[in-house]
Design a protein that fits this description.
By secondary structure, the chain is mainly beta. The protein has two domains: 82 residues, no CATH class; 194 residues, Fumarylacetoacetate hydrolase, domain 2. The strands form three sheets. Strands 1, 2, 3, 4, 5, 6, 7, 8, 11, 12, 14 and 17 form a twelve-stranded mixed β-sheet that branches. Strands 9-19-18-15-16 form a five-stranded mixed β-sheet, covered by helices on one side. A hairpin with a 2-residue loop joins strand 1 and strand 2. The protein is globular.
Length: 289
């Protein structure tokens, strides 16, 4: 419980705003007037619910976070609930080469270069990244993750943010040998536990100008602002929606900055996104108890 409380304490270090007004979530076209708010998906007892973070507690919501909802009078201690992957997406997209610092000598892509991760690779804050047998090296990739808020198809870029509920932290775990040698990236990028995500969904902030950091065992390995992305949040959502219908709860990993290094059993990874929080995951080897 001590370790769990510590992880929750880290999450609570971010600044969160008061409860949104009751009823349907504020429309995205009013985002300039919207106050920052952070949502969580959590388990308490035998129930799973969404809530809004209020200090060290979470106010339970009734209804559909991606439709109509209202706050209830039930407030749970964050330290006493289990935080889950923020959504249950129908699909998970990810972008390759979206920071020049990561591309190195490779050319910048004119269009976003998407690939798919699968929902079954997602794990929550605090859960273990398990390195599969037969692959080395496996690297971290700290990322901002877009959370789709409403159905998006052929959305123009100037309307794309209307379809975004908020953003969360993500780690696109990558088996480099499989990535280089396989025809497809299905196991290199989407093996079980290769999609840490969470713990909060935060809206009402400037998604395209947040400080993104990744720490390996407490040492900063990646540090860059999301303003350095080649393709920003609206551009990514708009382009993807031309070809794939985005559904509420779908996730888009937006690419990683800088260089990455190998992870090994016993390591601890932390992805911190300004205004959002910290995603913390230990690393284990296949066959670990």
């Amino acid at each position: 419980m001590t370790q769990r409380r510590r992880a929750i304490g880290i999450v609570l270090a971010v600044w969160v705003a008061p409860l949104l007004m009751a009823g349907r979530a504020v429309a995205a076209e009013k985002k300039s007037e919207e106050q920052p708010v952070c949502y969580v998906r959590f388990e308490v007892g035998d129930r799973v619910a969404y809530g809004i973070v209020e200090g060290e507690g979470v106010r339970e919501l009734r209804g559909d976070l991606f439709g109509s909802w209202r706050p209830t009078d039930k407030i749970h201690e964050l330290a006493e609930v289990k935080l889950l992957v923020p959504t249950r997406p129908s699909k998970v997209l990810a972008v390759a080469g979206n920071y020049r610092s990561h591309l190195a000598d490779q050319p910048v892509h004119g269009n976003p270069e998407f690939f798919f991760k699968v929902p079954s690779c997602l794990i929550a804050n605090g859960e273990e990244i398990v390195l599969p047998e037969g692959s080395a090296p496996v690297h971290y990739e700290g990322e901002l993750v877009i959370v789709i808020g409403k159905r998006a198809k052929n959305v123009p870029e100037d309307r794309a943010l209307e379809c975004v509920l908020g953003v969360t932290c993500g780690n696109d775990i990558s088996a480099r040998d499989w990535q280089q040698n396989d025809v497809q990236w299905w196991r290199a990028k989407a093996s079980d536990t290769f999609g840490p995500c969470g713990p909060l969904i935060c809206s009402g902030i400037d998604y395209d100008d947040l400080l993104l950091q990744l720490r390996l065992n407490g040492q900063v390995k990646q540090r860059q602002r999301t303003s350095d992305m080649v393709h920003g949040v609206a551009a990514l959502v708009s382009f993807a929606s031309r070809y794939v219908t985005l559904e509420p709860g779908d996730l888009i990993y937006t690419g990683t900055p800088g260089q990455t290094t190998e992870i090994k059993p016993g390591d601890v990874l932390e992805v911190e996104l300004e205004g959002v929080g910290i995603l913390r995951n230990p690393v284990a080897g296949a066959g670990s108890p």
